[in-house]
Amino acid sequence: MSQSKKLSAGVTRTDKAMSDGRTIRYYDTDGASRDAVDQRPKEDQPAIGELRFDSLVNEWVAMAPHRQARVFLPPKELCPLCPTVGELLTEIPEATYSVAVFDNRSPSLRRPDNSWSLPPLTGPQTPTTPAAGVCEVICYTPDHGKSFKDLSPAQVRTVLEAWRDRTAEISQLDFIEIVFPFENRGEEVGVTLSHPHGQIYAYSYLPARAEKMLASAKAHKSATGRVLFDDLLAREIKDEVRIVAQNAHWVAFVPYAARYPFEIHVAPRNPVPDLAALGDEACDAFPSIALEVLNRLEGVFNIPMAYIASWHQAPVRHDRDIMRLHWEITSVRRAPGKLKYLAGSESSMGAFIMDMRPEQSADQLRSVVLGN
Question: The Galactose-1-phosphate uridyl transferase C-terminal domain covers which part of the protein (predicted)?
Fold first, then answer.
C-alpha cells in the first residue's frame, strides 16, 4: 500500500503499510519519495481493551492491560521513534523523515468492528463495551535531541498540517465523538519515550473535561446568547495583564483562574471549532506564537520544562457553534527542583489550589529574554 495526498502549505501526505498491518503517514514538503519497506517480522496487534462505566461520577474508564508491556524510556540507540538506520529497525522504516504519524503499537483505544455502539447508561448495570477509539503517534522531527521549541517555523507548520489532516479524517469515523491531539514532555508528566513526539487520541465518548466544558458553554449560551470562550478571550484581551504573546491571528495568555504554576492558553482571534477549520492565514501565523510561547516557558528557569500541551476542540458532530479551538499548555514546575504535585485536594476532590497568582506567572513569562 502506498497512497499520496496533497494538503495545504505545500505538504504531501504519503501512506505506507507497516509490517503488522498498521499505517504510517509521512508529511513532507520537499517531494521526498517514501519507498522504504518495514522489514520487521509481522507481529499480532493487541486485542481491543474495554470501557467500564464509573456510575459514581458518570465517567467511562478505559482498561488497556496490554500497555503494561510497552517500551519504557529506552536509550537513544534503541529509540523506536528515530529513523531506521543500520540494524535498528524502528517504527519509521525510512532513513529520515520530516513529520510522521502512525497507529499506536500499544493503543488505549482502537477501531472496533462495524457493529459497535456505545451502550445506554444504566448506572451500575451499564454493560462493559470494547474500548473503541483511535490512538496515533505523531513524530515532530527525526532529531532525537530536539524538542518542539527547537523546531523551525516551517517544521511547526508541517506539524500543524498533520494535526489538521488527522482531525479532519478521524472526525469522519462514525464511532468518534471528539479528537484530542496532545503532547507530554518530560518524565515528570509520564513520558515513556524521550524522542520529540505527541499523540492523537480520538474518543468514542465525551471525556469528563469535555463534557464539563460543553455544559458550561451551553449554560452561558442559554443565559446570555453568547459563546462562553469568546467572552473569556475578550476579557483577557481587555485586561491585558495576563497576555504572554500575541500576533495578528493568535493570542496567548495565562487564564484568569489558572490551575497550574505555569499555564498558557493559545487561541485564534477568529474563532473556529477545530484545527481543520483554521484558515490559511491563521495556520501560517501559528508557528511564530507557538515557538515564542514554548521558548518563554523554557526560559523561566532556564531548564527543560515538563509540560502537557493539549488541543481542545469541539465534538465532531454537535455543538460546534459554541465550542472553540484552543491550545492549553500546563507545567507542574513551580521552581527549580520543585513540582506542583496534584495531591489530596486536586486528585481526590478536583479542587485546585494555586501557589502563585496567574498575573505573577504571566509576568515571569513575559520577562524572559528570547534569543534571536
Answer: 219-367
